[in-house]
């Protein structure tokens, strides 16, 4: 099973740790694309900081993020599960997982990244700022860079198992599994039910996805189909409604009334 998570916009900034070494990251097939995006981002932020602020969609009060990007080659790194923060990652809370669950997380979870394509939770990366919708001169849209780079790497990372795709729409654009994987792709939509009405609420969506991943890792479940995945979620206490299989996979609706 491969569980794909979105990155967080906000990130923790380590104060010490060895600098970034692209050659140590998992999925080494992505190294050339990673270097291309990294070099372009660093050059932009070093040579044209005002242009960088515009390109990156930052406000005047976020100049520090441009400086941070300019220093990426020498910046301290930490494990990705310590860099990414926010509601989903707080709910997942990797640091407090059992030893067995941490081992599963290392092998089963990956994070979509505008800078690195995909990273495993154990990969050491610096804090950076680059959204998935940025067009980065001179390489162009970063999403297009990763669509090309992940075309073969994505399916290989899934292997013969189930893909649980929890990415947001922006990061799903980096790689969309083809029809040959459709029977082994499950996406999750979290619906908040209140007074008989259902709607998607960002906080409930992120927190519930984090809790789902945590529960799966602790439980050790390794479902091979969307139906088996839905059954595991129900066994673990969630209310799940499973949709029909389409050429892009199967959507599961997880209905919650509270976080």
TrEMBL record:
One of its GO terms (biological process) is response to hydroperoxide. Pfam families: H2O2_YaaD. It comes from the Bacteria. InterPro entries: YaaA (IPR005583). PANTHER family: PEROXIDE STRESS RESISTANCE PROTEIN YAAA, PEROXIDE STRESS RESPONSE PROTEIN YAAA. NCBIfam families: PRK02101.2-3 (NF002545). This is Peroxide stress protein YaaA. It comes from Nocardioides faecalis.
